[in-house]
Amino acid sequence: MGNNQFGMQNPLHQYPQPEFPQQPQPVPGLASKVQPVPDHGETSYKGSGRLAGRKALVTGGDSGIGRAAAIAFAREGADVVINYLPQEQSDADEVISLIEAEGRRAIGMSGDLKSEAFCQELVKQASTELACLDLLANVAGRQKAIADISELTTEQFDETFKTNVYALFWLCKAAIPFMPEGSSIINTASIQAYQPSPTLLDYAPTKSAIVAFSKALSKQVLPKGIRVNIVAPGPFWTPLQTSGGQTQDVIEDFGSEVPMKRPGQPAECAPIYVFLASQESSYITGESFGVTGGNTLP
Ligand code: NAD
Ligand code: MG
Question: What is the pLDDT of residues 234-262, one digit of tens each?
C-alpha cells in the first residue's frame, strides 16, 4: 500500500475501512500475515533530516507502530537498534533492510523484555553499537482480550504488567545514565489509559501506569536535559490486535467505533514520534498525545 504522506486528501477515505476478514494468528503476530497489509510508511515516509546523527533504540520495532517509528527515524537520519521477540525475526529483517537502504545503520537485537537483565543488556549493547543512545522509543507491548474477570488469570495479569510496565521502567532506568543532554524518551500508552474497554482489564491499567510513570519521570530527568513524552494511539491496524488483542468478531469491525470509522495505519503514528524525538519539540515534556481517529483524550 502506498500513500503520499503530504498529499492533501480526505482522511476518512485514506485507508481501508471495515469490514475486515477474521485472521487469527499466534502471539506474537507477524505484520507479514495481516490482511489488508498495514502501511508502516515503507513506500511513503519521506524524511528531511530532522533526526540527523541521532542514535535510537525502538522496542517492538519489527512491526506495527514501532516499525513505522523505526522507518521514520531512519529516514530522518537516525541510526536505529530495534528489539523484538525471536519469533518475529522475519518481520525484523524487513525493517533492517529498509533502514539499510537509507544508508543508516540498523541493528536487530531480539530478546524478551520481561527479563530485567535482558533490558539492561539491550540498552548497554545498543549504546555500544551506536556509540551513543539519545532516543528511546518504548513501543513494545502485549494485549490479550478476556471477556470476563473470572477468566483473567494471575499469569496473564503478571505478563501484561511485566511487558508493558516493568520492561519500560527497566529500559528507562538502564538508558538514562547513557543519555546525553537533548535526549528524548517516548513511551507508548493508549486511549485505553483514558477510555478503558471492558475486555482489557489488565491491559488498560498498564497504559494508565505508563502515563503516570512518564509524567513523573519527565519532571525527574528534565534537570539532566532529557525530555519524556507519551503517545496514546487509538485503534491501529497491527498484529497486536489481530493476534488476540481483540476477539476475531471485533477485528471484523475494527476501527468502526471511532469518528474516523476506520483503524489508523502505523504510518499515521510515525510523525508524532519523530516530532517528539526531534529538537523541534524542545519545550514539550510530560505530555500525552492522542492519535485516536477522533476519540478525543480528556
Ligand atoms: P505489534 O504487535 O506490531 O507490536 C508490539 C510489539 O511488542 C511486537 O512486535 C513485539 O516485538 C513486542 N513485544 C511484545 N512482547 C514482548 C516481549 N516480551 N519482549 C520483547 N518484545 C515484545 O503491535 P502494535 O499495535 O504496533 O503495538 C505497539 C504499541 O502500541 C504497544 O505498546 C501497544 O500497546 C500500543 N498500542 C497499540 C494500539 C493498537 O490499536 N494497535 C492502540 C494503542 C496502543
Ligand atoms: Mg511484531
Answer: 999 999 999 999 999 999 999 999 999 99
pLDDT in tens, 188-213: 999 999 999 999 999 999 999 999 99
Ligand 1 geometric centre to CA of 138 (Å): 9
Phi, psi of 156, rounded to the nearest 5 degrees: -65, -45
From ligand 2's centre to the CA of 86, what distance in Å? Answer: 10
Q: Are 211 and 193 in contact (CB under 8 A)?
A: yes
pLDDT at 1 over 70: no
147 phi and psi, to 5 degrees?
Answer: -70, -35
Distance 70 CA to ligand 2 centre (A): 13
| Nearest partner of 140 among 70, 202, 205, judged by Cα | 70
Q: Quick one: which ligand is closest to 197's CA? A: 1
Known catalytic residues are 203
In 45-189 the beta strands, taken as DSSP E runs, fall at 55-59, 79-84, 106-110, 135-138, 184-188
Please report whether residue 10 resides in a domain.
Answer: no
Radius of gyration of the chain (CA): 18
Specify if 138 maps to a domain: yes
CATH number of the domain where residue 180 is located: 3.40.50.720
Ligand 1 within 6 A of CB of 277:
no
For a mutational test of ligand 1's pocket, the pick from 20, 65, 83, i.e. the residue with the most ligand atoms closer than 8 A to its C-beta, is: 65
Q: Is residue 87, in this structure, part of any structural domain at all?
A: yes
Place of cell 494508565: 208
The boundaries of the domain holding residue 235 are 52-291
State whether residue 157 is helix, strand or coil: helix
